[in-house]
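Explain the record.
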Amino acid sequence: MRITQIFTQLIQRHIRVLLLQSNLHAPSLPKIIMVGLAGIYLIGLLSVVELSQRPFWLIAILPFALQPLLIFVTQRRIHSTFIESLAPLTIAYFIAVVRVLLAVGDRLQNHTTGSLTVPEPWGQRLDLNVAMLICGIWVLLAQLPLTAQAFGKSRKWQWQAVAIMLFAASVLWAGRVYLTIRAHGATASDPFA
């Protein structure tokens, strides 16, 4: 295969993953491309960890690897769609690059002299933690069709799994809000209550 054909095929496969239309029956990419793609995603994840100063994003590798591991156990082969299912992370990596460019541009204009601080209002709008959370959920959703195909399940099972994931995420969010953000006073505005 020529390089342009491989690149075009890679872009098309990533778009299918972003649209949650992964397929285990598609031919796998060459191993050198799979290894290179895995390296790019690992470097991107390490960059996000460094820029956000949040090492817990390294733990995200565990849930991202769970469904591909289950598929590997049932089919006994490594397919390139395992690595392609990480395609939603490219959005978080793009946000990281934009943050660095904004910080460097601000520093070149002598607005800051310290570290790579992103100027407001972009700092809050381009939050890497929110981007990684959304993209991480997207990765798990992108892996669902692969898991459904490996176990011979229907599309109905896939949507049930999505509903369970959304329910679990909302329960975790509500629990965090209820347990950590305490109401102060009758109107929740008294800081001394």
User: Anything to note?
Assistant: The mean pLDDT is 80.
